[in-house]
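Regression test case RT-17, inverse folding.

Input:
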């Protein structure tokens, strides 16, 4: 009887060992941890160009997908807080999203703040400036730079041929005109009078004319200067 009981106990122990070896593994211990970050895809251009002082633009959009969570576009956050609309330059817009596992995905778009008169800037060589009254022509060089804080404003270094370097500020308008304020001091007692300019080409080569009057305190002289670069 004791032998039979021992046989039964051994049989039960053997079965228990077999059953424990066949136990279904814990799914939590076998599922690999999600370490893959979600992917943000930017729609439209990677660089946006926006006029100085305006910040008028439409966000082109984006999508976000995750290998586990699927479409998580609605979880993307982004901001233009780092953009200074009143200073030319390039600024990053960072888009961020997290999946349920805490993995972080990012994408960056660049917003470039530009002065719309920047195309006028550069070095101008052999500017022809004609005196419409005396029928004389002078030739000189000048450099044009744009304002970094006021859209459409630019500065001409060495305006006209007045025997000294004259700097004046002009304003470009979207209709293709350039305005110079009357009363600008041109040196030697000369002041700028009424002026009007027209831009005939905004691409290479850039061409524009400056039709202006200046007064030396006695007489008024009409000039037409042609800028080309």
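Golden output:
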């Amino acid at each position: 009887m004791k032998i039979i009981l021992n046989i039964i106990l051994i049989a039960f122990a053997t079965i228990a060992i077999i059953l424990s070896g066949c136990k279904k593994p814990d799914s939590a211990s076998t599922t690999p941890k999600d370490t893959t970050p979600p992917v943000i895809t930017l729609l439209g251009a990677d660089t946006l160009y926006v006029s100085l002082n305006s910040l008028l633009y439409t966000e082109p959009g984006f999508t976000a997908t995750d290998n586990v969570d699927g479409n998580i576009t609605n979880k993307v956050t982004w901001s233009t807080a780092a953009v200074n609309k009143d200073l030319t330059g390039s600024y990053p817009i960072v888009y961020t999203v997290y999946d349920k596992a805490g993995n972080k995905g990012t994408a960056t778009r660049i917003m470039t703040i530009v002065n719309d008169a920047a195309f006028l800037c550069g070095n101008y060589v052999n500017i022809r400036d004609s005196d419409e009254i005396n029928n004389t022509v002078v030739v000189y060089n000048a450099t044009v730079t744009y304002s970094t804080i006021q859209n459409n404003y630019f500065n001409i270094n060495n305006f006209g041929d007045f025997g000294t370097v004259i700097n004046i500020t002009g304003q470009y308008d979207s209709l293709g005109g350039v305005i110079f304020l009357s009363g600008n001091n041109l040196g030697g007692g000369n002041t700028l009078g009424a002026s009007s300019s027209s831009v005939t080409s905004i691409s290479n080569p850039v061409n524009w004319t400056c039709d202006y009057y200046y007064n030396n305190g006695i007489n008024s002289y009409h000039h037409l200067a042609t800028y080309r670069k």
